[in-house]
Design brief:
The protein has about 725 residues and is mainly alpha-helical. It contains 24 helices and 11 strands. The longest helix has about 35 residues.
Length: about 725
C-alpha cells in the first residue's frame, strides 16, 4: 500500500513499511509477525551484521532490506531475529536497555517529514519502544470489543428483571410514548405487506415514511418481520445491547486499522466508547444508537480517503448513518467537515493533493447523500410543516452552563444526563489521564496536539454558546435532550487516549507528577459539579490508575501484574458506569404496557369484525400519546417531532389537548358530540369508568374493566352539508 511517505522518511534505518490491514499482508518476520514497524531492536537482539541495512540506503517498497531490491521480500527476513510478542512486552523485554540509557535512535527524535497521519492517528515511527507487533489477521480483540459491551448490557438487563427474566422492560420516556409504538406499527406493515408510505393509525392519518425516517430506520428493525408481536419488546431490548456492542466493535476497528496496533487496548478503548456517558444516558433513545455506533467507521473512511483515496467505506458508512437517523447523521456530517481539514493539516498534505482529496470527499459525500434521498426527502418535506420550521436565528449570544461544570462532567460515577442537564462527555477516567499524556508526549507532533485540542475546545464551546449550538442543530432549537452531539467529544478523546496508551509502560517520574496534577484538577471540577461523594470515589480510582504503574514499574514481571491490575480497575469502572446508566434511565412494568392490553385488543378485533367500513375510534383514558399506533386502530392522537403544527393549532381551537411546541395532539377524554362527529370518531373504548355523557353512546360490548361504545351521531371522514 502506498502511504505517500516522503523520501527522507524512507531513509530511516531499518524501518519497514506497515502492511495494509485490508491486504492481509504480514509484517516482516513470518506469519506470526516480526518486530513492530519502525522499531529498532536492542543490541542483544540485533540481526547478524551481514544482514544489516546499509547506512543511508533506500527502503524497498516491499519491505525488503534496503539496497537489495532484486531479492524477493521473503528472502530478506533477518535470519535469527527474535520476535517480540505482547507476552514478552508484559514480561519486561528490553527494559534493561532503557535502564542503561541505551535508547534506540527512534527515541531520540525522528524526521519532521513523516506526517502521514491525521490528528487522531499515530505516527507509525513514533510508537513507544517494543510496541506489540501489528497482526491484522488477529480478530479476537475486535470480537471482545463487541462481546463485552453486548454481554454486560444483557447481564445488567437480566439482573434488572427485564422480560423474560422478570416483569420489567426498557420502555421509558419517549421510548414509551413514541419509539416502540411506531416500531410496532412498522412491524405490522412489514408482516402484513401494507404500504409503508402512509398510516391511518396515527394522528388522523400520517406520512408514515417520514415517521420511519425519524424513528424506525435502523437496519436491525427489518429483522422484526421474523419476530412475533408479543416478543417485540424483548427483541427491542436485545437490539439496544447489539447496538452498544457494535459501538465498541466499530470503534475497535477504527483504532486497529488507523493506529496499526492490534492488542488488548483495542478492546479496552472500544469498550470505553461503548460505555461513554452519551450512550449510557441516551440508550433509551434507541433510534440514535446506530449512527453513534457508525461514527468510527465514517472517521475511518475519512482516513482512507486522505491517505489512499479509497472511498467505499466512507460512502457506505455515511449513507447508512444518515439513513439510520438523519438528526445524529447531521452531526456526523459536520464532524466530517472538520475532521477532513484537520486530517489534511496533520498529514502535511501538499496543495495539489489537498485539492484532489477535497474534490474527492465532496463527490463521495454527494454520492452518500444521493443514496439516502429516498428517505431524507420525505423527512425534510414533513419537517417543513412541523413546529421546528418556525425557529428563528438567535439575536443575542449567551452561555448555557459554566465551562468548569462542563469539563467537570468528565468525572466518573455520576449520573449521566437522561433528559436535561450537562453534556454527556465522560468516556472513562483513563481517557482523561491518557489524553493529558497525549498532549505532553514529545512523540506526538505539535500540529497533531494543536488539531486535537482545537477539536475538543471547539466542541466544548459549541455545547455552551447558544448561536453555535443552534447551527449544529440544523438551525433550530432542540426540545429537551440537549447537547446531542457530545458523543463526538468522547470519540476524539478515546482516540487520543489510545494513541498515548503504550507510554504507560515507560512513564518517567515527571509524567507521574503531571498525571497527579491533572487528576487533582479534574477532582476540583468534579467537586464543583457533582459534590463530595462522587469526588471521593473519583479520587480513589484516579489514585489507583497512577499508583499501579508507579509501583509495578521496577518489579520483576511488573508489566504483566500492572496490565492485570489496570484491566481490573478499568473493568470495574465500566461495570459501574453501565449500572449507573441503566439505573438512571430506569425500567417500567412489562405486564401493564399496554394497560388492559388483551382486553382492549379483543374489543378492537370484535369491532373490526363487525364493521368493515372506514371510521376512527379512541381509547380513553390514554396511556401513551400514540395509543393508536400501540394498539393498532385508526385514531386521533399523535406525538412525534414531525407532527403537523397546523393540525395542532386546529386541535387547540377545537378544545382537544394539544401543544404546538410539544409536537403533539391527543384525545385525553370523551370530547363533545360535535367534536366527535367532526373527527369521524365512531367507536370508543373506555377503561375503568362510565362515560359522563351517554346520550349518543351505545354500549356494544365490554368486560369488567373495559367497555366499548358506538357513537350514534358520528360522521364519515368526508361529508357535505
Amino acid at each position: 500500500m502506498d502511504h505517500n511517505i516522503n523520501d527522507e522518511n524512507k531513509k530511516l534505518d531499518g524501518a519497514p513499511e506497515n502492511p495494509s490491514p485490508e491486504s492481509g499482508e504480514q509484517p516482516a518476520g513470518g506469519e506470526d509477525g516480526g518486530r513492530a514497524p519502525g522499531v529498532s531492536l536492542p543490541p542483544d537482539m540485533a540481526p547478524p551484521a551481514d544482514n544489516a541495512p546499509q547506512a543511508g540506503g533506500s527502503l524497498a517498497a516491499d519491505g525488503g532490506v534496503p539496497g537489495e531490491e532484486d531479492i524477493p521480500a521473503e528472502e530478506n527476513v533477518h535470519a535469527g531475529e527474535k520476535k517480540l510478542t505482547f507476552e514478552d512486552i508484559l514480561n519486561g523485554a528490553g527494559m534493561e536497555d532503557l535502564r542503561k540509557g541505551e535508547l534506540p535512535p527512534l527515541w531520540e527524535g525522528e524526521p519532521e517529514g513523516n506526517l502521514d497521519e491525521p490528528f487522531f492517528l499515530p505516527e507509525r515511527v513514533s510508537e513507544p519502544e517494543y510496541a506489540p507487533p501489528y497482526e491484522p489477521g488477529v480478530k479476537k480483540w475486535l470480537a471482545l470489543a463487541f462481546a463485552i459491551p453486548f454481554g454486560l448490557m444483557c447481564i445488567i438487563f437480566a439482573f434488572g428483571g427485564v422480560f423474560p427474566f422478570g416483569n420489567r422492560q426498557i420502555m421509558v420516556i419517549d421510548c414509551w410514548h413514541q419509539y416502540f409504538p411506531f416500531l410496532l406499527e412498522m412491524q405490522s406493515k412489514l408482516q402484513s405487506g401494507d404500504s409503508l408510505f402512509y398510516t391511518w393509525n396515527d394522528g388522523l392519518g400520517t406520512n408514515f415514511l417520514a415517521l420511519i425516517s425519524y424513528y424506525c430506520a435502523s437496519p436491525l428493525n427489518l429483522l422484526t418481520v421474523f419476530v412475533p408481536a408479543e416478543y417485540l419488546r424483548t427483541a427491542f431490548a436485545l437490539f439496544v445491547a447489539i447496538k452498544i456492542g457494535c459501538a465498541g466493535l466499530f470503534c475497535g476497528i477504527f483504532l486497529k486499522s488507523t493506529f496499526k496496533r492490534n492488542d488488548p487496548t483495542v478492546t479496552i478503548f472500544g469498550c470505553f466508547f461503548a460505555f461513554c456517558a452519551f450512550i449510557m444516558g441516551y440508550y433509551w433513545n434507541v433510534m440514535w444508537l446506530d449512527t453513534v455506533a457508525l461514527l468510527p467507521l465514517v472517521a475511518l473512511g475519512i482516513v482512507s480517503i486522505v491517505r489512499e483515496g479509497r472511498f467505499k467505506l466512507y460512502v457506505l458508512s455515511l449513507a447508512v448513518a444518515l439513513i439510520s437517523n438523519f438528526v445524529i447523521g447531521l452531526y456526523v456530517c459536520i464532524f466530517t467537515f472538520f475532521a477532513f481539514f484537520l486530517t489534511c493539516i496533520c498529514c502535511g498534505t501538499g496543495w495539489r493533493t489537498f485539492i484532489k482529496r477535497f474534490f474527492q470527499i465532496g463527490v463521495y459525500t454527494l454520492l452518500a447523500l444521493s443514496l439516502t434521498g429516498f428517505i431524507l426527502m420525505p423527512a425534510y418535506m414533513a419537517l417543513q410543516n412541523s413546529y421546528s420550521a418556525t425557529s428563528t436565528f438567535p439575536t443575542t449570544w449567551k452561555l448555557y452552563e459554566s465551562f468548569a461544570e462542563i469539563v467537570g462532567n468528565l468525572s466518573a460515577f455520576a449520573q449521566p444526563t437522561v433528559k436535561e442537564g450537562l453534556p454527556n462527555i465522560y468516556c472513562g477516567l483513563p481517557c482523561v489521564l491518557l489524553g493529558v499524556l497525549f498532549i505532553a508526549s514529545p512523540k506526538v507532533k505539535l500540529r497533531q496536539k494543536i488539531c486535537a485540542l482545537f477539536m475538543l475546545i471547539f466542541l466544548v464551546v459549541s455545547f455552551n454558546v447558544n448561536v453555535i449550538e443552534f447551527i449544529w442543530n440544523g438551525f433550530h432549537y432542540t426540545n429537551m435532550l440537549p447537547y446531542r452531539f457530545s458523543f463526538l467529544f468522547s470519540f476524539v478523546l478515546v482516540a487520543m487516549a489510545f494513541k498515548a496508551a503504550p507510554e504507560v509502560f515507560t512513564l518517567g517520574y515527571w509524567k507521574y507528577i503531571l498525571l497527579a496534577v491533572a487528576g487533582a484538577g479534574l477532582l476540583v471540577l468534579c467537586w464543583m459539579t457533582h459534590g463530595m461523594l462522587i469526588t471521593a470515589i473519583n479520587a480513589a480510582v484516579i489514585a489507583l490508575y497512577i499508583a499501579i504503574p508507579l509501583i509495578c514499574r521496577k518489579r520483576k514481571s511488573g508489566r504483566k501484574v500492572m496490565a492485570v491490575l489496570l484491566c481490573m480497575v478499568m473493568g470495574g469502572e465500566m461495570l459501574a458506569t453501565a449500572i449507573i446508566g441503566v439505573c438512571s434511565v430506569g425500567l417500567t412494568s412489562y405486564s401493564s404496557y399496554p394497560a388492559n392490553g388483551q382486553e382492549v385488543s379483543a374489543l378492537i378485533e370484535k369491532i373490526e369484525d363487525g364493521d368493515s367500513g372506514f371510521y376512527r375510534m379512541e381509547v380513553v383514558p390514554w396511556q401513551t400519546l400514540n395509543d393508536p399506533a400501540l394498539l393498532g386502530y385508526k385514531g386521533v392522537s399523535t406525538f412525534s417531532s414531525i407532527a403537523n403544527v397546523g393540525v395542532s393549532s386546529l386541535m387547540i381551537e377545537l378544545g382537544i389537548a394539544a401543544q404546538k411546541a410539544g409536537n403533539r395532539y391527543y384525545y385525553t377524554h370523551l370530547s363533545s358530540p360535535l367534536n366527535n362527529a367532526l373527527l369521524g370518531l365512531k367507536y370508543f373504548i373506555v377503561k375503568q369508568r362510565e362515560p359522563a355523557d351517554s346520550v349518543y353512546l351505545e354500549k356494544i360490548a365490554g368486560t369488567e374493566n373495559v367497555v366499548a361504545y358506538r357513537n350514534t351521531a358520528s360522521l364519515p371522514v368526508g361529508f357535505m352539508k
